[in-house]
């Protein structure tokens, strides 16, 4: 990784593991340890926020430059990437997580038992930055996590359907971000770095219903860019037939502030309205919502929400 990129990431409190891996505490880790407020994923999917390892195997590698992304955009291509082996990646991320949470021990607001649990993550969120399906050992990494008793959430832009189809084992939950209703909006908002990316997303959507794991389509909504087009989004969702659909509002944080304005951040009422229209078109229900995270969960009535 170029020194300037590594320095920039370190300033943003990322901890680099190997050539391309990284870990970083998320906002909700702090909220849970200090105030007892969990991430919406704890309420929706049963993830214990303080035991979630937010990491990436490809911190500086992505094939899109989404304008709404809060991550650092000093990306490189695949050439010359020095990817760590799965064991090095997982052990390194857990080691760095322990160091990152160490400072909470002296805070009287932090429950000591919860702090101890935070040092022993039981869930791995494979997201954070970059596109994880570009990591060459992704299936092996997920398998390693499973053998160690860790659940996994894989968050992907869906542009590499071949990788997703070949994963064995599958992650506990597969998130596919569909941040555009059509090819033209995708080209302008997600800025793909390769030809045919939209076609490959459509291929991924056609795979989802056949995967024996929990599947979620995430619609990241950016006011003035991709909010609306409910008929087109519903058509994509219908083709994918996921277990859940998660519309979530863009948040004006991080490096997205250099590309967007605060007016691009939709209110929860806008997210709720969009969700109601999608649910109506798919004959589904809004199962849960979190106003502070500007997110809703759409699924069939009575759907199982918790991790098994």
Would you give an account of this structure?
The chain has about 300 residues and is α/β, with parallel strands linked by helices. It has a single domain, classed as Alpha-Beta Barrel (TIM Barrel), CATH 3.20.20. About 35% of the residues lie in helices and about 15% in strands. The protein has 11 helices and 10 strands. It has helices spanning about 5-10, 25-35, 40-45, 85-100, 110-120, 140-145, 160-165, 185-190, 195-210, 230-240, 270-280; strands at about 15, 20-25, 50-55, 125, 150-155, 175, 215-220, 245-250, 285-290, 295-300. The chain has a 10-stranded mixed sheet, sandwiched between helices. Strand 9 and strand 10 form a beta hairpin. Helix 4 (about 85-100) crosses helix 6. The chain is globular. The model has no long low-confidence stretch (mean pLDDT about 90).
CATH topology value: TIM Barrel
Number of strands: 10
Q: Could you state the order of secondary-structure elements as H and E?
A: HEEHHEHHEHEHEHHEHEHEE
CATH class call: Alpha Beta
The portion of residues assigned to helices is 25-40%
Strand content: 15-25%
SSE class: alpha/beta
Strand order of the largest sheet: 1-2-3-4-5-6-7-8-10-9
Instruction: Identify the CATH homologous superfamily.
Output: Aldolase class I
Average pLDDT: 92
Which shape, going by the Cα principal axes? globular
Number of self-contained structural domains: 1
What is the subunit arrangement here? single chain
CATH architecture: Alpha-Beta Barrel
Q: Spans with pLDDT under 50 lasting ≥5 residues? A: none
**What would you report as the Rg, rounded to the nearest angstrom?**
18 Å
